[in-house]
Amino acid sequence: MNIYDISEKAGVSIATVSRVINGSTSVSEKTRTKVLAAIDEYGYTPNVFARGLGLNTMKTIGIMCADASDPYLARAVYYIEQDLRKNNYDSLLSCTGYSHDVKKNCLELLLSKRVGAVVLVGSNYVENNDEKNTYIRKASDTIPIMIVNGVLNAPNIYSTVCDDHGAIYEITKRFIKSGKKKPIYIYSSNSYSGIKKLEGFYDAMKDHNIPVSEKNCHFIKSHGIGVHEAKNFVTNIAESGIEFDGVITSDDILAAGVLKYAKNKGISVPDELFVAGYNNFDIAECCEPELTSVDNKLEAICHHCVSTLMSVFSEEKSVPKNAVFSGEIIERSSTKFI
């Protein structure tokens, strides 16, 4: 027995059932009576919300991110909080780290605070082992779950993503069309987004008849990696004998490390080496030379996430489950595309 059965029995939306469970005053007495009758008939106990029936709920949204020191995640949280505030909602932030068990416990804690929804910021919440996503689907039985830059299919889960595959595919294609025969890709995450980016690089290489092997793609296993670590990493790649005339990275910090490597070795960028990053954050304009990067439309993604949530709360009939934004290549001095 779950919230969907109650919704069908009472003839109302899942969002309405959730509001009744949370004690929202925006539901008519007639509708509230129908929902409570269905709950009583089925003997449904809505988890941590059982004790909250009939009580007023705070207009509060839970936000989860792995690491608030990460520039991408920090900026996303900022945009989401600003939009929630404009819609008269407060937020509770939980910085979970990357451990599955900790993420699960943090989500349960937010549920115990009777939040109206939870926003999961970052694709690291979508596990490659789908069984590990069960706790998120279970939470969505009770409240809407919004995912920024990750996709998980369930009736009450809504996703907003950048087309990471398409963006990396396009920038790799531009490297190749501009004469780069030996581009390599450096990345630091195997999350949903990270895998899409990697696939974009592989597909572009294959479509342009350039052999792909482990020499083309290099994974640096570290969260919160710094510029100097990235410089040392690409130095090791070069010293291992791997030749490359272009470097595409999964974020701007890695690309900044590549620029430091090039300067240290006396390699001219972009005449001898093309370099491109991802996210188009401020660091891209602080580099020397300034860094070509993919603008992943983070602000628009976050705005759409909150807008979708407000539509769910308003019980609009056609609320998109998954929205995809196209990334935009911002060319600067680290490349010379033809």
Quick recap:
With 338 residues, the protein is an alpha/beta fold. It contains 12 helices and 12 strands. Mean pLDDT is 91; it is low at 48-57.
Report what the structure shows:
- With 338 residues, this protein is α/β, with parallel strands linked by helices.
- It folds into 3 domains: 3-52, 434 Repressor (Amino-terminal Domain) (Orthogonal Bundle); 60-162 and 298-327, Response regulator (Rossmann fold), CATH 3.40.50.2300; 164-297, 3-Layer(aba) Sandwich (Rossmann fold).
- Helix content is 42%, strand content 16%.
- It has helices at residues 3-10, 14-21, 29-42, 71-86, 100-112, 134-139, 164-177, 192-207, 227-239, 252-265, 283-286, 298-313; strands spanning 60-65, 90-95, 117-121, 145-148, 157-162, 183-187, 217-219, 246-249, 274-278, 292-295, 322-325, 328-330.
- It starts with a helix and ends in an 8-residue tail after the last strand.
- Mean pLDDT is 91; it is low at 48-57.
